[in-house]
Amino acid sequence: MIILKGAEAAAQIQREVEERLKALGGYVPTLAIVRVGEKPDDLSYERGALSRMKKFGLRAESHAWPADISMEEFGERFRRISEDGDVDGILLLRPLPPQLDEREIERMIDPGKDLDGISPENVAKVFLGDRDGFAPCTAEAVIRILKTYQVPMEGKRAVIVGRSPVVGRPLAMLFLQEHATVTVCHTRTRDLERECREADILVSAAGKAGMIGGNHVREGAVAVDVGINVTPEGKLCGDMDFEAVSGKAAMATPVPGGVGAVTTAVLAEHLVRAAERRKEQGRV
Amino acid sequence: MIILKGAEAAAQIQREVEERLKALGGYVPTLAIVRVGEKPDDLSYERGALSRMKKFGLRAESHAWPADISMEEFGERFRRISEDGDVDGILLLRPLPPQLDEREIERMIDPGKDLDGISPENVAKVFLGDRDGFAPCTAEAVIRILKTYQVPMEGKRAVIVGRSPVVGRPLAMLFLQEHATVTVCHTRTRDLERECREADILVSAAGKAGMIGGNHVREGAVAVDVGINVTPEGKLCGDMDFEAVSGKAAMATPVPGGVGAVTTAVLAEHLVRAAERRKEQGRV
């Protein structure tokens, strides 16, 4: 069985980014990370993103705001960043505390800087298959890791477990762009094992440790685990029982070291793309 | 076999609309139909929409513009309608001639009046499962006809043939809202017959006469035909070979008289919804 390593995909993206930075002639794109409060998940993702940007030769700045920030204050600060000529791209760590209206915030962000595809404009583009839009980084990371290992997608059956707006749904659209036949399963799906066994490419994005076992995987399938869960012992694990799945699959991603290791590399690629466009438009 | 009649669903929608019109206290919502050129398809759809609005007690006005209208002129006129306080909803007949930039036009329409869900705002809402958004009328008509005949969707396998932005993709999202397990097939799908035979609910929106036959349908399935094609003899027909399909399916929609007969009723319901919201906002 081949282990699909996120580091491989990230290294490939790094080479692309370095090429394109050269073409930008010394301009160093800047990412603004916006974090509200001090949630451990957010802090860990932020650290990962900051170190990735540095490694790729990109600039990043972190904006940490108090957990009890009012919607008014948030809106004022967030708009200022969105309009800041020195900022090429924005990553907003979510979910946000309840006093902040995410729907309204999604409409505040400049779609050209919206690297994680939260604005209606980018959501619509991804939905319509317009490659010009920014897809959520995690969904795109799945496609990137498959492409790195040259997994054919055209005409293949891709089965996604999970229908969330940040992974399952956009990933379904990205698979359609790759000409895969796509099935989306979820908590109400009647016979999940059977649905999953139909997959040439099985992606789990359900957020439930160990929910995908050997019975879910057809001999020779490709298994991609987007889940990031923490065991009672504090260990990171995915949605898949890796040992059981490896016994069947031809290729599988580990957790950690799989999709999660590609996400911030995709973010970096989006940042460079945003900067390239701003340059074309004479905005930098 | 039960024939799923569009007229049944339309009559149910009419009763709802009449109730809600009463609650609007005499206010009669107005639809603006925008047509460019004189394409027979557009003229026929326009006639259907006008007579449906009249039948439901709604107002409709038709704006017919020359096929060679410039983008500038179109934009000016279209914005005027979108901003017109007397217009509650808009239907733009598409596709438009090549000199008109559909992407730009989708961004001009007031999302609150965008009854056929073409604005990024509504596309994003449908994608995210936000029932507040307007879905494309044809996609919603499929769900309406199934609900009229109380076809259970939760946990069922819905298979859609066709991945277009106006039917296949939004319909996939609407089925997810109904908690169906959804598969989207298309021209690159490897074994279409097999995929279709897995369906509890099979929907064809491919626009190819006779492409779905008896081998595509499982015994007892529900078959919904969204295709509207014209035979060489000038007769209307769907994507399904109705006779062959009826031999297998438990329920099936005819063409004409199926989904097509529900679409303008959904449009009318959207118009009333738009007017209700404008009233809530004190705009009428």
TrEMBL record, chains A, B:
GO terms for cellular component: cytosol. Keywords: Amino-acid biosynthesis, Histidine biosynthesis, Hydrolase, Methionine biosynthesis, Multifunctional enzyme, NADP, One-carbon metabolism, Oxidoreductase, Purine biosynthesis. It catalyses: (6R)-5,10-methenyltetrahydrofolate + H2O = (6R)-10-formyltetrahydrofolate + H(+); (6R)-5,10-methylene-5,6,7,8-tetrahydrofolate + NADP(+) = (6R)-5,10-methenyltetrahydrofolate + NADPH. The keyword NADP applies. GO terms for molecular function: methenyltetrahydrofolate cyclohydrolase activity; methylenetetrahydrofolate dehydrogenase (NADP+) activity. NADP(+) binds at G162, R163, S164, I228. GO terms for biological process: L-histidine biosynthetic process; methionine biosynthetic process; purine nucleotide biosynthetic process; tetrahydrofolate interconversion. CDD domains: NAD_bind_m-THF_DH_Cyclohyd. It comes from the Bacteria. Pathway: One-carbon metabolism; tetrahydrofolate interconversion. Residues 4-116 form the Tetrahydrofolate dehydrogenase/cyclohydrolase catalytic domain. The keyword Disulfide bond does not apply. Residues 136-278 form the Tetrahydrofolate dehydrogenase/cyclohydrolase NAD(P)-binding domain. SUPFAM superfamilies: Aminoacid dehydrogenase-like, N-terminal domain, NAD(P)-binding Rossmann-fold domains. InterPro entries: Aminoacid_DH-like_N_sf, NAD(P)-bd_dom_sf, THF_DH/CycHdrlase, THF_DH/CycHdrlase_cat_dom, THF_DH/CycHdrlase_NAD-bd_dom. Its EC number is 1.5.1.5, 3.5.4.9. Pfam families: THF_DHG_CYH, THF_DHG_CYH_C. Belongs to the tetrahydrofolate dehydrogenase/cyclohydrolase family. Homodimer. Catalyzes the oxidation of 5,10-methylenetetrahydrofolate to 5,10-methenyltetrahydrofolate and then the hydrolysis of 5,10-methenyltetrahydrofolate to 10-formyltetrahydrofolate. This is Bifunctional protein FolD. It comes from Candidatus Lachnoclostridium stercoripullorum. The lineage of its organism: Bacteria, Bacillati, Bacillota, Clostridia, Lachnospirales. The gene is folD.
